[in-house]
Design brief:
Helix content: 25-40%
Keywords: Acyltransferase, Transferase
Distance between the termini: 18 Å
Largest sheet: 10 strands, mixed
Protein name: Acetyl-CoA C-acetyltransferase
Number of strands: 10
Shape: globular
Structural class: alpha/beta
Family: Belongs to the thiolase-like superfamily. Thiolase family.
Radius of gyration: 20 Å
EC number: 2.3.1.9
Oligomer: single chain
Organism: Microbacterium sufflavum
Strand content: 15-25%
């Protein structure tokens, strides 16, 4: 089978809710990373076969196939197509999968995969709230088939994260220590310039806004729990954010034709499902499945990016896999850096690629929990 290569990856800084990027139209936010990627690689945008953009809550400024809108706002030729996909939190990671699969199948040679999300303008679940005007409290609650299969089950990421903490007996204090470490790692990465090469500054912002350098276990201990009697607080959850990101995926022929130098090779792509009630546990079976498919051991992987939707998600994953925290989210994660849903997949991949290069690692594995009880796994090999 043909190979798919990562030529380059870039992202905007991650803006906090109501912060420096909050006023930017989602199409312009997405276009920023597209333009930056073209400038960095020197490719002719007219040579692109497709642009695949992950985004959720596609209403308002994110409606009407915002992926195509971002292509046009970026100034790409009108013949260049664009599409928007939604696999919830894994949307732009899935965009990379679709791009790589197109290249590996021989149907495309040069594809940009990316993501965008302005959560300040369109808060999480905006599409669900909009649906209430038409009599839908959730996308599935009114489905007789759904109720027959999952009768009376409350479907919520917050409930799922609490269920995970309870099932794996993860204490509030343990999650708070993990969250504090996320902020400390992110602050250190900023101070050491680890993100500088991957961020294309935007609107006067050149670093991620969410890192809380003054947080402490004492401050976290004073917060109210998200649910009465629960263990989770806002401190152990990912931050609401605004950002975009993009990755250029190319075939061997495109690399040759355009004089490109690949930075990594796509080694493995897969996606698996798990309980939609627990919702956030799928990275565990998805990681196991990836190891079975590749014949690799987790010891073969140098670095892991496991999205910090909630501290309980990553802590449960580490307990089940046995992967040490020293190899996971070494530059912090969504708790500190933010989780701009549609953009997070390719944001994580951009950071993973740069960190593999910085440390000299060979293989990096990325996975993330997704609404509906899903998880993608991507393994990349640094070249």
């Amino acid at each position: 089978m043909a190979e798919a290569y990562i030529v380059d990856a870039v992202r905007s800084p991650v803006g906090k809710r109501g912060g420096s990027l909050s006023g930017i139209h989602p199409a312009d936010l997405g276009a920023h990373s597209l333009k930056a990627l073209v400038e960095r690689t020197g490719i002719d945008p007219g040579a692109l076969d497709d642009v695949i953009i992950g985004a959720t809550d596609t209403i308002g400024g994110q409606a009407g196939n915002v992926g195509r809108s971002a292509v046009l706002v970026a100034g790409f030729p009108e013949h260049v197509p664009g599409v928007t996909i939604d696999r919830q939190c894994g949307s732009s990671q899935q965009a990379v999968h679709f791009a790589a699969q197109a290249v590996m199948s021989g149907t495309s040679d040069l594809v940009i995969a990316g993501g965008l999300q302005n959560m300040s303008q369109l808060p999480i679940s905006s599409a669900m709230v909009a649906g209430e005007a038409y009599g839908f409290t959730t996308p599935f609650a009114e489905s007789p088939g759904w109720q027959e299969r999952y009768p009376g089950q409350e479907i919520s990421q917050f409930v799922g994260a609490e269920m995970i903490a309870e099932k794996w007996d993860i204490t509030r204090e343990e999650m708070e220590r993990f969250a504090l470490e996320s902020h400390q790692r992110a602050a250190r990465a900023q101070d050491e310039g680890r993100f500088d090469g991957e961020i294309a500054p935007l609107n006067g912002l050149d670093r991620d806004e969410g890192v809380r350098r003054d947080t402490s276990l004492e401050r976290m201990a004073g917060l109210q729990t998200l649910t009465p009697g629960g263990r989770l607080t806002a401190a152990v959850a990912s931050q609401i954010s605004d950002a975009s990101s993009a990755v250029l995926v190319a075939s061997a022929q495109a690399v040759k034709d355009h004089g490109l130098t690949p930075r990594a090779r796509i080694h493995h792509l897969s996606v698996r499902g798990d309980s939609p009630v627990f919702m956030l546990t799928a990275p565990i079976p998805a990681t196991r499945y990836a190891m079975e498919r590749t014949g690799m051991s987790l010891d073969d992987i140098d670095l892991f990016e496991v999205n910090e939707a909630f501290a309980s998600v990553v802590l449960a994953w580490m307990r089940e896999t046995g992967v040490p925290h020293e190899k996971v989210n070494v530059n912090g994660g969504g708790i500190a850096l933010g989780h701009p849903i549609g953009a997070t997949g390719t944001r994580l991949m951009t950071t993973l690629l740069n960190e593999l290069e910085r440390t000299g690692g060979r293989y990096g594995l990325q996975t993330m929990c997704e609404g509906g009880g899903l998880a993608n796994v991507t393994i990349i090999e640094r070249l």
